[in-house]
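for the writeup, i need someone to sanity check this before i put it in the appendix. the sequnce is what the collaborator sent (i think, or maybe the updated version? ugh). structure was predicted straight from it, no edits. if anything looks off just tell me and ill rerun, i have time this weekend
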Amino acid sequence: MKSPQRLLAALWAALVLPVSAAPLAYVPNEKSATVSVIDTADDHVQGSFPVGQRPRGIAVGRQHLYLTDGKTGSLLIVDLQRGHGGRQIAVGDSPEGVSLSPDGRRLAVAVEDDNSVVLLSAPKARIKVEGRNPEHAVFSPDGRWLYVSAEEAEQVDVIDVAARRQVASIPVGKRPRGIGFLPDGRLAYVASELADKVYAIDVARREVIAEIATGAYPNGIAVHPDGSRVFVSNGRDGSVMAIDVASQNVIARIEVGKRPWNMAITPDGQRLYVANGRSGTVSVIDAANLKALGEIPVGELPWGVTIR
């Protein structure tokens, strides 16, 4: 069996293949304390490697994986080029979502128990937010704003990244969770788990323009690269729904595994990968034809997916 260091080195070699090579999907498994790596060319698991004690949120850059560790209260930085774990940065109790800015210069970490977002750049900043137990902090496509969801809230908090402070709150339904922006930054979509709705927000006006009924316990959000569709996972009923952006209507419901959570779509918009927390699998969906293609076994309690 390959050591974690050799496996990571091999994975980095895959990342720097010619541009025709398919991207890799990285899946943090909370209970297994591992990351599974899926080759999206044929949807087989290349391998897995241990990381932290409770890996949750995940983001990927050109040379690093960034993961939150809910057990140790830290951000883990995995150096893909060298094939081993690098720095570990203390961020606060129970960190969850992590987001990389579009220019790759900043990281935002939602820290649940501290009711804050940690912005890692130069210098580091800790920004308090109104919503309790923040779960996700997501950069807008232009990098100007961070939208923050919180489990004990009925609002999305808006942070001005340059000013490093919260500047607004936008009312939504109970327990907002996943957030996604259209590529042009006009609209943001927020899943509210206890409202069974997705809220479409006009970013310029900072107001809700549509409320879209979903399945039970919506949580994860993924946006198609061309901005035509938004996908939402429904945790309680084991499904993913596709929302047509032009009409703001649900156009398809796709069965997946148990407790689907966070998701990611390939850069070409062809396939959607869905972490099924209670199934220990990742569902693969044909994002064009809106059909399930199968499930891939991973580790225990997969939290989400990031793709590069």
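The CA atoms of residues 138 and 307 lie 16 Å apart. The helical segments are 4-15.
thx in advance!!
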